[in-house]
């Protein structure tokens, strides 16, 4: 039976054909296995580089692998055929031999393409194994067909089919092994790779010898040959030379693979270095941005501004030109930030930054120094240009802003200083602009104010006074004056108000208006409040021991109300003086009350639970607290002196004072009028049933020693009730 020119024979004995005895040359068989193993090792090595990222490089390595693997398989086959010895002359058809080599290379190319993929599905594995197995089988049997001799090759059909199956299974196993060991960035250990190469070599040579097992060479019936004769079909040196040439080609390929891997490794190292350099550049740029620019607004930050101002000062000094520095601070930013939240505050700062930038010229520099503080450096030829810039900014800021769904207008206060008129260094320019800004805020906000020399003198004086005031507080050199508060129904002193004084060594007795703002601005006003509370409790306890059972009222600033230790401080002062809580009254201004109403209410309720009395001072002059009056644990409200001083001449003040008194009574609160200086005012207050009064008419503030004498005189003569309540 013939198929595609291949002769199949199932029963050789019945055919009458004479089989030709044959043998194998062990040395050439060993060389063929060595070449198969070398081809397998090459395939394993090329698998690592066949997955290169570059398409051209990937195809180059695949073709190199195809020539090495295909050439190795073909060389193994050719050597094994040369090792096949028969006692008849054997020749080879060059064309068929070359065709078998081409088929081996193409089958190997398909193998290299498949092992160059990241992963294979089961269907792809099976399809590739069938294709490669058929290709290798075709190479083998075309090579067999290239053998020319007097004998005819007959194949056992079952062994023929088995050789094809073996070829496919060997192809499948080889691909799976190569893909399993392929690790481009982490090559397999050499020992494991060599062991795998031996297995691949065995698989490759098994494809040949399974095919050889299927063939039988026969001579026609009646033909004779000398079975013992030796026919030198091939020189052994030809086989050895072929083996060495094949090994050299494979070795060169391995060297190329090694060099390629080294180059690829260097390329990857270079890419990593470039990536690290790029990352370093990006990091450096990010660090530069972090170091020089504000993350929220994108403006220059304080560090960058300080560097820039020095460079520009040097430039302007060399050119003899002028420059203006404008210091800006948003008005009431804290209140907006607290009421609408920090996200709204951040959005406000971003909007303000954009508005400020739009108001500047090309060469002007703007920076956010922190919080709601901005600073601008502007080149000016004349001083009026700085004023025009400041006015333009003020006007720009008056445009409404939509914030948290609310339309509002945010104003800013500006302080300005000029180079070189006001200062020649960046530090001094900043200080002087800051002083001008402080003056702008003190004058009503939403203003532009330029530095003047007297501001520096005032600042120096305030700095000196701050140091002296701190010393006076630490050395217990402050003192307390007490102003009596009278019951208008009886004319008797019901309690006193404690008022701090400072006996300055050079300026004499200073009233609170001369130093309280300094203490507030520098953060130790609450310490003064605490000192006054302790002193007042101690003095009132002395009066109690002398028989004067009166209370004392002490002013409590917003900083004191914000301190978490306020309640414990008051409790400590009462305990130290052994004074009953009902004899201490804390006066809180409306502004202090409304600054942080939620926290304040909590503090006041705790104080009220102690038994301390509470009142609102300067009622009607600050933020409206009417909405909270019913929630506050109050005992009294004090009508501010501004509503009393023009009575009876100002009809509006008459109406306001009368309304406040009536409202206080409706809320069951005592009403205290302060700043009483005339008999007409006393008469008005009595007529409107005001409860208590204090002022210069009944008594000025007195030091503790004189207060004792006053109380003795007041009890003995009842002077106020006789002369003013009649």
UniProtKB/TrEMBL annotation:
Record domain EAL: where: 462-715
SMART domains: EAL, GGDEF
Primary subcellular site in the record, as a coarse category: membrane
Main EC class the enzyme belongs to: hydrolase
PANTHER family xrefs: BIOFILM ARCHITECTURE MAINTENANCE PROTEIN MBAA (PTHR44757:SF2), DIGUANYLATE CYCLASE DGCP (PTHR44757)
The entry's keywords: c-di-GMP, Membrane, Transmembrane, Transmembrane helix
Listed InterPro entries: Biofilm_reg_signaling, EAL_dom, EAL_sf, GGDEF_dom, MHYT_dom, Nucleotide_cyclase, Rev_trsase/Diguanyl_cyclase
Native species: Pseudomonas luteola
Catalysis performed (reactions): 3',3'-c-di-GMP + H2O = 5'-phosphoguanylyl(3'->5')guanosine + H(+)
GO molecular function ontology, one term from the record: cyclic-guanylate-specific phosphodiesterase activity
Protein name: cyclic-guanylate-specific phosphodiesterase
Domain GGDEF, chain residue ranges per copy: 321-453
Cross-referenced PROSITE patterns: EAL, GGDEF, MHYT
Domain MHYT, chain residue ranges per copy: 24-218
